[in-house]
């Protein structure tokens, strides 16, 4: 009897991608095959996103597409936390489960397509099944979030912060390194709050114990001999200690901090930290400790109540702080978010679009000027794509998919996943161009 075949759709952020990897690893360990297409598979699993309305629409569209092409669909992920939203539109889905509900997903799979397990054939690598290229991987250190930003419903969808014991995280990281991963991207909803719910308790790791604390975890990961990149870090005071690890070359000099805005009025309405002077002082201190620190952030324009003065304050702050990489979103009201009930004036769509355009032009100029300073330097590059004597890679200042790249040329063939040194010969608004030396 042939093994059941499951087609899989993974939507949303890297944290959802890790959830997908865990489900697929479980499927493969039980003998299921992963099908590349919906038609011909025994069933389809759709791991959904519901962070904003456009993400919900995309999730519902993918569920509809899977039902049309296959007919047997299991829905999981963030949209699954509101099953009535799914079943109202598609009452014939097999099951709906919330995020991180791995066992519930597998129960639904077993009912729809019982496994045919052969332990001599169905081999799963120790690091599990990954949906990223072999040379980098996301490492999720916690679930949920205990912050209650007015524009966000993550705590309602995924619950409050639940950190993994440090030893569990480090064991997974070690397996990834042994499998050949060259870069570990640490992710969670609030990475610098890691371990707060555990009261920073210790867990056994090799010949010692390690605290479930941001600094301690970063230090241990930094000893594994690979690139370690920190995402979704709130600028708490104890982040200062981790900057010293960056200055010492233990982890990459890169911080992804979701600032969201610079106007104190907007930040207060967002229920975000609004002490801009303290944040500016902290960034100045970080750059003194680690001069080549790269900052990435995301911002929201058009939040309810945002005035032209608020927006100009954001642009002025961007010019002052000079964020290396910045993404920007036009505000979308999310059902269930407290911002909907604050009675703030709604920003018209055309104003949102205008501010988004102005933000992107402003940041493009900042990015272009910062990248010009790298021309003539020799930088270490991790190769993401190779095509003979040309390739595309990233510096330690850039994360995959969200930041810029380095377009490479070489006198010898380039290999995907290798670390090379390149002399930077040219730059544009977002990318670099270099020759491998």
From TrEMBL:
Residues that hold [4Fe-4S] cluster 2 according to the record: 145, 149, 152
SUPFAM superfamilies assigned to the protein according to its UniProt record, in alphabetical order: Radical SAM enzymes (SSF102114)
Domain (Radical SAM core): residue spans on this chain: 131-369
TRAM domain: residues covered: 372-437
InterPro entries per record: Elp3/MiaA/NifB-like_rSAM, Methylthiotransferase, Methylthiotransferase_CS, Methylthiotransferase_N, Methylthiotransferase_N_sf, NA-bd_OB-fold, Ribosomal_uS12_MeSTrfase_RimO, rSAM
Binding, [4Fe-4S] cluster 1: 13, 49, 78
GO aspect biological process, one term: tRNA modification
Catalytic activity: L-aspartate(89)-[ribosomal protein uS12]-hydrogen + (sulfur carrier)-SH + AH2 + 2 S-adenosyl-L-methionine = 3-methylsulfanyl-L-aspartate(89)-[ribosomal protein uS12]-hydrogen + (sulfur carrier)-H + 5'-deoxyadenosine + L-methionine + A + S-adenosyl-L-homocysteine + 2 H(+)
Gene Ontology MF, one: 4 iron, 4 sulfur cluster binding
Ranges where the MTTase N-terminal domain occurs: 4-114
Cofactor note: Binds 2 [4Fe-4S] clusters. One cluster is coordinated with 3 cysteines and an exchangeable S-adenosyl-L-methionine.
Cofactor: [4Fe-4S] cluster
PROSITE patterns per the UniProt record, alphabetical: MTTASE_N, MTTASE_RADICAL, RADICAL_SAM, TRAM
Protein localization: Cytoplasm
Pfam family, one: UPF0004
Keywords, in A-Z order: 4Fe-4S, Cytoplasm, Iron, Iron-sulfur, Metal-binding, Ribonucleoprotein, Ribosomal protein, S-adenosyl-L-methionine, Transferase
Predominant localisation class: cytoplasm
Enzyme Commission code(s) on record: 2.8.4.4
GO terms for cellular component: cytosol; ribosome
Membership in a protein family: Belongs to the methylthiotransferase family. RimO subfamily.
UniProt function note: Catalyzes the methylthiolation of an aspartic acid residue of ribosomal protein uS12.
Name of the protein this chain belongs to: Ribosomal protein uS12 methylthiotransferase RimO
């Amino acid at each position: 009897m042939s093994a059941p075949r499951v087609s899989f759709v993974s939507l949303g952020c890297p944290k959802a991608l890790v959830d997908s990897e865990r489900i697929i690893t479980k499927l493969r360990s039980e003998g299921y095959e992963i099908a590349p297409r919906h038609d011909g598979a025994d069933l389809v699993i759709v791991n959904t996103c519901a962070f904003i309305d456009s993400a919900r629409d995309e999730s519902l569209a993918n569920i509809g597409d899977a039902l049309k092409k296959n007919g047997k669909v299991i829905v999981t992920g963030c949209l699954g936390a509101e099953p009535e939203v799914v079943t109202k539109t598609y009452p014939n889905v097999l099951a709906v489960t919330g995020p991180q509900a791995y066992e519930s997903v597998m129960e639904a799979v077993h009912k729809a397509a019982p496994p045919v397990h052969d332990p001599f054939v169905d081999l799963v690598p120790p690091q599990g099944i990954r949906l990223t290229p072999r040379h980098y991987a996301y490492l999720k250190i916690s679930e949920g979030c205990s912050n209650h930003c007015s524009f966000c419903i993550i705590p309602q969808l995924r619950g409050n912060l639940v950190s993994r014991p440090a030893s569990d995280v480090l064991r997974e990281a070690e397996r990834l390194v042994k499998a050949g991963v060259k870069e570990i991207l640490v992710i969670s909803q609030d990475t610098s709050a890691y371990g707060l719910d555990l009261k920073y308790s210790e867990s056994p790791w090799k010949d010692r114990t390690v605290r479930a604390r941001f600094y301690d975890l970063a230090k241990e990961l930094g000893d594994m001999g690979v690139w370690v990149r920190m995402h979704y870090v709130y600028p708490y005071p104890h982040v200062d200690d981790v900057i010293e690890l960056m200055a010492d070359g233990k982890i990459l000099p890169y911080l992804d901090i979701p600032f969201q805005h610079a106007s104190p009025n907007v930040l207060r309405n967002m229920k975000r930290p609004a002490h801009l002077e303290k944040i500016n002082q902290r960034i100045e201190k970080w750059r003194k400790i680690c001069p080549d620190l790269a900052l990435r952030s995301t911002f929201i324009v058009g939040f309810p109540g945002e005035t032209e003065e608020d927006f100009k304050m954001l642009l002025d702050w961007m010019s002052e702080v000079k964020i290396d990489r910045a993404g920007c979103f036009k505000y979308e009201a999310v059902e269930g978010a407290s911002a909907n009930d604050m009675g703030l004036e709604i920003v018209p769509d055309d104003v949102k679009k205008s501010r988004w355009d102005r933000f992107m032009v402003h940041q493009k100029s900042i990015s272009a000027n910062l990248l010009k300073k790298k021309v003539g330097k020799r930088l270490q590059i991790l190769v993401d794509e190779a095509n003979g004597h040309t390739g595309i890679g990233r510096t330690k200042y850039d994360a995959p998919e969200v930041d810029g790249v380095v377009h490479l040329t070489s006198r010898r063939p380039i290999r995907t996943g290798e670390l090379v040194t390149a002399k930077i010969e040219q730059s544009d608004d977002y990318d670099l161009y270099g020759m491998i030396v």
